[in-house]
From TrEMBL:
This is Aminotransferase class IV. PANTHER family: AMINO-ACID AMINOTRANSFERASE, AMINODEOXYCHORISMATE LYASE. Belongs to the class-IV pyridoxal-phosphate-dependent aminotransferase family. Pfam families: Sulfotransfer_5. Gene3D superfamilies: 3.30.470.10. GO terms for molecular function: catalytic activity. SUPFAM superfamilies: D-aminoacid aminotransferase-like PLP-dependent enzymes.
Length: 184
């Protein structure tokens, strides 16, 4: 049904032959296929849809929370007339519902969680030269902040970026963290 809807949205005639294919690599797979497509190369058709709701593994809740803003952004930008929206998946529950109202530091401003976006022209997107550190806050204090900042800078250096203005960066990042904490 999803493939039929997608064909309808793209104005491509649906054919039953789209549901089955020969196992093995394809000439159009690209250079990385042997690492990325192992299970696809073994397949010969679509598997049955999973039943929802499935219990969500507790070990993945942090990843879920980090992914939700992107999911919500994509969901808001889906064509409203798309036949794919007839049976959308439910929005997953956050383990801490209050986190839905968090504010985020983006660039030089604090914005609501769902509005936190990075431009597709940003070097982190264009060149993949980003570094990420997750912080935990307990009783209003950032856990091991100095260690996080050291890892952040060392991670950037692994991309060949020499951080000559280390102290200035640390002060700037700390100010962003504390302003965001205070607002939240």
């Amino acid at each position: 049904a999803t493939l039929r809807s997608l064909c309808e949205d793209l104005d491509i005639p649906f054919q039953a032959t789209m549901l089955r294919w020969e196992a093995g690599p394809k000439p159009i797979d690209g250079l990385w296929a042997k690492w990325w497509y192992e299970s696809v190369h073994k397949s010969t058709g679509f598997t049955s849809a999973r039943e929802y709701p499935m219990p969500f593994p507790m070990s993945l809740y942090d990843l879920l929370e980090q992914s939700l803003p992107f999911y919500n952004m994509l969901r808001r930008n889906v064509r409203k007339t798309s036949s794919l929206l007839k049976s959308p998946l439910p929005e997953p529950d956050l383990p801490v519902p209050a986190n839905k109202n968090l504010l985020a530091w983006v660039g030089d401003e604090i914005v609501p969680r769902d509005d936190a976006k990075v431009s597709v022209f940003d070097s982190i997107v264009q060149g993949g030269d980003g570094v990420w550190e997750g912080l935990r806050v307990y009783n209003g204090k950032v856990f091991k902040l100095e260690e996080h900042l050291d890892r952040l800078v060392k991670g950037k250096q692994k991309f060949g970026k020499v951080i000559v203005w280390y102290m200035e960066l640390v002060i700037m990042v700390k100010q962003a963290i504390f302003r965001t904490l205070i607002r939240n």
